[in-house]
Specification:
Shape: elongated
Largest sheet: 6 strands, parallel
Number of strands: 8
Oligomer: single chain
Structural class: alpha/beta
Strand content: 5-15%
Length: 221
C-alpha cells in the first residue's frame, strides 16, 4: 500500500485567508480574525463554528457557516504540477494508492475532490469517519483495509509532516518518503527513508526503490 495525504498532493490556502475575508465581509472587529485563526489553526470541525457563532454574536446557522468554510477552502485547492500523471503511472504499474488524513470528513473529501484526484485512490481514510487519528496504528490499518490490502513492509507513506506521521507510519511498518519543502529533518526522531523536494520526486524514488527490491529478490533465486 502507498499512502499520501491531501496536503502532500495539493496546494491549499491557509485558513487565515478565509478568516480575513470573512471578518471584512461581516465588518467584525480585527480581533475576530485572530480568534478565528486560533480556533482553526490545526484542523477545523463543525463544532468550531457552533462556538464561534456564539462568541462573535452571529445569527447564521452553524451548519451554513461550516458549509461556507468548506466550500471556500476547497475552492482554493490546486493540485501540484505533475502529481496526476505520476499517480496515474503508479496505478498503471499495479500499485495500491490511498489517502490517510486527520480532520473532518466533509472538508478532507472536499479538498481532495477539488484536486480532481479522488478516482485515482483505492481508499480514503479520514480520522473523523473511523474514530482513529494518525499516529495511531489503527488509522493506518483501516487505511490499508479501505484500499483492499494489508499493511506490509513494502508499503510507503508520502508525507510532509514529521513526528505524528513518522512515528505512526513506522509503527505500521511503512517506509517514508518525506517532502522537505526546503526544511531539514531535525526533530530527533529516526529520519525518513527518502527525502525529496516534491511528491512527484517521491513517486519516482519509490518506483526506483521497488524496482531495486524486485531485482535483488530475483537475483537471490
Amino acid at each position: 500500500m502507498r499512502v499520501v495525504t491531501t496536503e502532500t498532493v495539493a496546494l491549499m490556502r491557509h485558513p487565515s485567508h478565509w478568516a480575513r475575508g470573512f471578518v471584512r465581509q461581516r465588518r467584525l472587529p480585527r480581533e475576530a480574525e485572530c480568534a478565528l485563526c486560533h480556533r482553526l489553526r490545526s484542523r477545523a470541525y463543525p463544532a468550531d463554528f457552533v462556538h464561534r457563532r456564539k462568541t462573535l454574536g452571529l445569527s447564521d446557522d452553524p451548519d451554513d457557516l461550516w458549509r461556507g468554510y468548506v466550500e471556500a477552502i476547497a475552492w482554493s485547492v490546486r493540485c501540484f504540477p505533475g502529481v496526476r500523471e505520476s499517480l496515474e503511472a503508479l496505478r498503471g504499474a499495479g500499485w495500491n494508492l490511498g489517502v490517510a488524513t486527520n480532520g473532518a470528513g466533509d472538508i478532507q473529501r472536499a479538498e481532495l475532490a477539488a484536486t480532481g484526484l479522488t478516482s485515482l485512490f483505492d481508499g480514503i481514510c479520514v480520522s473523523e469517519e473511523i474514530g482513529a487519528r494518525k499516529r495511531a496504528y489503527d488509522h493506518f490499518e483501516v487505511a490499508a483495509s479501505l484500499c483492499g490490502t494489508r499493511l506490509s513492509t513494502d508499503g510507503w507513506m508520502v508525507e510532509d509532516g514529521s513526528e505524528t506521521d513518522s512515528e505512526g507510519g513506522r509503527a505500521a511498518g511503512l517506509r517514508k518518503a518525506w517532502v522537505a519543502n526546503g526544511r531539514t529533518w531535525t526533530d530527533g526522531l529516526r529520519g525518513p527513508d527518502i527525502v525529496v523536494r516534491g511528491v512527484t520526486e517521491a513517486i519516482e524514488a519509490m518506483r526506483a526503490a521497488a524496482a531495486q527490491y524486485c531485482s535483488r529478490r530475483s537475483s537471490s533465486w
